[in-house]
Design brief:
heterodimer, A: about 900 residues, alpha+beta, 8-stranded mixed sheet, 6-stranded mixed β-barrel, 30 helices, disordered N terminus, B: about 110 residues, mainly alpha, two-stranded antiparallel ribbon
Chain lengths: ~900, ~110
């Protein structure tokens, strides 16, 4: 072999020392030299070819690729040389039944130990299963469409002082995109309208979400037709597609094809097709689809002007790109080109359009996505923690028990059992427990599923037998649990020195598990404390958001829909409602004070030449709005009765944003908002018109009759029932073709924090389980310790120790561990919760109080757990324990 | 032990061992293989295969003297056994037969 001299000059590069050492330890003796030699030689060659760093990296890589059982398996002949008989490794299958038998006996004998382990493992695993199903459910949203990675939604970014996002696009966008640019295979506009009245016969009325869609819609998305022609669906005027579920609900077993539906009294359509029921994992909720061309008849305001300046979040546009077109190109070239072509200079600055992949629709909070992916990962992490806690119990109890089993192991070893066999026997024992737990866990998960579905308002399914991913997950979970919890105690047990074990000379230290056990208990309690602190903080923030003074009246308010806002109808309704005895105030508006979504628009003040830099949101409400909701007027006066936009009420923030020194300065000035001019007549006090997550921003209130869709009524809570009945009667008399519904204002506010409430409930459940599992483990440990220390306690008592002194013997140990756990958990919890709280502009302060409370709770629970067993130990008659010797 | 069926990769490694005749050891086989198969080969895979070949009795091995360039470690040199030769011939026979029995027209439609 010719070697380059370079190598021998100065310090010769050497392979990574740690890797060599590791290999020396790993490899079986008969191949050790050879492997290290080969690697060394390869390394030297590579140093010359690629340089030292690369060679080091490649060395590591080769080492990883070497990892295989063959690396540490002993050579068969190697054993042969030293034994007279031909060595044959034990037949694993034959041994297995033996392992199982022994394990079963063992578990049967130590019932409490088994029960504790099974209970904690099944709880942990049940949570893991549920969390897995939940995460999988959310990740699978709208992933079932063919070519789903080519499907996009066009969305709007409005660049003003800050960027706002909308799922909708201007009405002409679909046509412009389709005809002007040859990049999409299909372009489908769709308009979603929620809660419309659909009547089959005059008496049979339903409230339903409907959608108006282009014919291409069903070509883009994979919603197959059960009946009807997919080619001609939605082509013809006055037709409709409904899902199978709706068909059953409306017509029972009758043939739905050809039947008529009356939509909001303005449209009569004939059913021409039946869609297969929508899968649970889609963000498309409408079950009735009408041709887009019919939108003109139904909601002309959505399409009234074919203009580029307005867009509605429900007017969306989906496309499927051609296979060779990339979204980046559309984003960077085509959509900006559309802006340049259709907007004047001034507006082109503000409008941007982008593509959103269909997979992102469920997860983008800017664009009304359901949740963020990071929430899912948080849950996954919590699930992982819970499984860890359960495994910790197992390890703790097993190592604690190891001493008790020392004799058994001594005997086995003396009779010729090898470390490997003992280890596998222990693993079998673990596998039995874990397997049993898995079965129980699946059952628990199954039972808990309806509750989870109810909490989240979703339709999770748990198909234990048919869902491949779930099966793989279960199998993986089982393996992980078996090896996490079984391997360490197994190794400890298998390593006992037979002589010492038989003589009973093993001490707690030689089980090696003592400090580890402490560490594990600390981990467990740190996790529970983390969750408890989380629960406490989320609870108080939610209570704060729901109970804080929002700046308006929210109790005893009932909100009714107004299906028809013609002036005559509204005034009749107002008059009739005011006559009812329990009703105090009646007001009409488009949105109640607190709502999640509120569009903002441009604002030109007084005689200033340009629009203001900031945008302003509009609420439409009549002259009763401010008094009904108790919103104080700080300057000027309330709005005068009117149906059109004449006067504006601004909030304080708007006045501040205008840069004026006093509230009085705006009174009487002109304002042009969203292109409509009026006079500013007053300033109302700031109130929280969105959730506490966002700061109060400029807002105006104006009378704008045509947008009123709700009626707010303050009622006397004393005789709620009759008043509500009165409301229904008056309302139904006026709107006979509509369905009466009502809601309380407080529900609106709760809805703003829906996701947080879910998060809270989950964390509460998890914290409960974590602490319960932790306590089970603690209970097991203490009973075991009490058993071990029986004699010590006996001696102490005989020598005059007090009961309290003995209690303290147990207590001090665990108090210390709990304290350490707290010290670990508190900063982490502080960091995590602080991060969560930054989501809120208006929030509680993190005080020491909650942390101390969390610690006290864990302490109390732990004390109760430990207390019972230690009491029993402390009160035991010393004669009983000492007589045995 | 498992049957002495010769796997695809095993066959190639065994051929390489035979080819290298007196200098067939880990690194040499890895390099010869990477060159011929034109893809990088990891020591681990080759090593495992050679071990398996030895267990099947198709090769046997001896150790060389310790060598300085290998950090003072010995090489394990492999040579083919009679059984190995037979296995190779058998594999070749099967392949030849298969090739011969392929009808002339079998590839025609592929143009």
């Amino acid at each position: 072999m010719n070697r380059n001299n370079k190598n021998h000059q100065g310090s010769q590069p050497a392979p990574p020392r740690w890797a060599e050492r590791l290999l020396e330890r790993l490899t079986a003796p008969h191949i050790r030299d050879e492997i290290l030699g080969d690697l060394y030689e390869l390394f030297q060659k590579r140093v010359q070819r690629y340089g030292s760093t690369q060679a080091q990296l490649l060395y590591g890589l080769e080492m990883l690729l070497l990892l295989h059982p063959r690396l540490w398996r002993k050579q068969a002949q190697y054993v042969n040389r030293y034994t007279t008989t031909v060595y044959s490794p034990p037949n694993p299958m034959a041994m297995l039944s033996n392992y199982v038998k022994i394990a079963w006996r063992k578990l049967n004998r130590h019932k409490s130990y088994t029960v504790i382990n099974v209970v904690s493992l099944s709880l942990g695993m049940a949570c893991a299963i549920l969390i897995f199903t939940l995460v999988k459910y959310h990740l699978s949203f709208d992933t079932f469409h063919a070519d789903q990675n080519r499907i996009y939604r066009i969305y709007t970014e409005l660049h003003t002082e800050k960027v706002t996002y909308s799922t909708g696009v201007p009405n002409p966008m679909g046509e412009a995109f389709r005809s002007g640019y040859n990049v999409a295979e299909k372009v489908g506009r769709i308009a979603f309208l929620t809660k419309r009245v659909v009547a089959v016969a005059p008496q049979k009325k339903f409230e339903e979400d409907i959608a108006f869609a282009d014919p291409d819609f069903f070509d883009i998305f994979n919603f197959p037709l059960l009946e009807g022609n997919p080619k001609s669906a939605l082509q013809d005027h006055n037709t409709a597609l409904i899902t199978d579920r709706i068909a059953k609900k409306y017509f029972g077993n009758e043939n739905p094809i050809g039947q008529l539906l009356h939509i909001d009294e303005s449209l009569v359509v004939k059913i021409t097709g039946i869609l297969r029921n929508l899968p649970a994992t889609t963000d498309f909720h409408s079950e009735i689809y009408l041709p887009f061309s019919n939108l003109q008849n139904h909601s002309p305001w959505m399409v009234e002007k074919d203009w580029w300046l307005g867009f509605n979040k429900e007017m969306q546009c989906f496309i499927r790109l051609k296979p060779d077109v990339s979204a980046a190109v559309v984003d960077s070239k085509i959509l900006p080109a559309i802006v340049d072509k259709y907007y004047d200079k001034e507006n082109a600055k503000h409008f941007r359009f982008k593509l959103q992949p269909i997979a992102d629709v469920h997860f983008n909070p800017n664009l009304r996505g359901y949740t963020e992916k990071k929430n899912l990962w948080t849950f996954a992490l919590i699930g992982f923690f819970l499984v860890v806690t359960a495994c910790v119990n197992f390890i703790n109890l097993a190592t604690a028990q190891a001493l008790g089993r020392a004799k058994e192991i001594g005997v086995r070893k003396a009779l010729g059992s090898q470390q490997g066999t003992l280890f596998w026997q222990f693993i079998t024992e673990t596998a039995l427990i874990a397997g049993l737990s898995l079965i129980i866990a699946s059952g628990l998960a199954y039972l808990a599923l309806p509750f989870v579905n109810q909490w989240f308002g979703i339709k999770l399914m748990l198909n234990l037998l048919t869902d491949t991913y779930l099966l793989i997950f279960l199998f993986g979970l089982l393996l992980i649990v078996i090896f996490c919890s079984g391997a360490y105690p197994g190794l400890i047990l298998a390593r006992f020195q037979p002589v010492l074990a038989l003589k009973g000379k093993l001490s707690q230290q030689s089980t090696g598990g003592f400090s580890l056990r402490k560490g594990l208990v600390v981990t467990q309690f740190a996790i529970s404390q983390l969750l408890i602190i989380g629960t406490l903080i989320i609870t108080s923030q939610l209570r704060y958001s729901q109970q804080a003074d929002l700046g308006f009246r929210k109790d005893a308010m009932v909100i009714l829909p107004v299906p028809d806002n013609k002036k005559s109808k509204i005034s009749t309704l107002a008059a009739q409602l005011s006559e009812l005895s329990g009703v105090e105030n009646v007001t009409f508006f488009d949105t109640p004070p607190a709502t999640e979504f509120l569009a903002s628009t441009s604002f030109r003040f007084d005689s200033r030449p340009e629009n203001e830099k900031f945008n302003i949101s509009i609420k439409a409400g009549d002259h009763q709005y401010a008094p009904t909701f108790n919103i104080p007027i700080l300057a000027g006066r309330n709005l005068n009765p009117s149906d059109t936009i004449r006067e504006y009420l601004l909030n304080e923030t708007a006045v501040k944003a205008l840069g004026l020194a006093s509230l009085q300065e705006v009174i009487g000035k002109a304002a042009t908002i969203n292109g409509r001019s009026g006079t500013i007549v007053g300033v109302m006090k700031d109130f929280h018109y969105k959730s506490f997550r966002v700061a109060i921003e400029p807002l105006c209130l104006t009378t704008w009759g045509e947008t009123y869709n709700s009626c707010g009524v303050t009622i006397n809570p004393a005789n709620l029932g009759p008043t509500l009945a009165g409301l229904e009667k008056a309302w139904t008399a006026l709107y006979p073709s509509s369905i009466f519904t009502y809601r309380f204002m407080d529900e609106d506010i709760e809805r703003l924090y829906k996701l947080d409430t879910m998060l809270l409930r989950l964390i509460q459940a998890f914290a409960g389980i974590a602490i319960f599992v932790g306590c089970l483990g603690l209970y097991g440990l203490v009973s075991f310790m009490a058993d071990q220390k029986k004699k010590e306690i006996g001696v102490r008592k005989v020598l005059g120790a007090s009961t309290f002194g003995i209690l303290w013997l147990f207590g001090k140990e665990f108090s210390r561990l709990l304290l350490v756990a707290f010290v670990l958990a508190a900063p982490l919890a502080w960091w995590v919760m602080n991060k969560w709280l930054t989501n809120f502009v208006y929030r509680i302060e993190l005080g020491a109080g909650m942390f101390i409370l969390a610690m006290l709770i864990t302490f109390m629970v732990a004390l109760l757990t430990v207390g019972f067993q230690s009491m029993k130990a402390a009160l035991m008659n010393p004669i009983k324990t000492l007589r045995t010797e | 032990m498992k049957g002495t069926q010769l796997g695809e990769f095993e066959e190639i490694v065994l051929l390489t061992i035979t080819l290298l005749y007196d200098d067939a050891y880990g690194v040499a086989v890895v390099e010869a293989l990477s060159k011929r198969l034109e893809r990088p080969m990891s020591l681990g895979v080759v090593h495992r295969t050679m071990q398996r070949l030895e267990e099947k009795g198709l090769v046997h091995s001896r150790f060389s003297e310790p060598i300085a360039e290998r950090g003072g470690r010995a090489k394990r040199l492999f040579t083919i056994t009679l059984a190995g030769e037979q296995a190779l011939r058998e594999a070749r026979r099967i392949r030849n037969e298969l090739w011969e029995e392929i009808p002339k027209t079998a590839f025609d439609h592929l143009t």
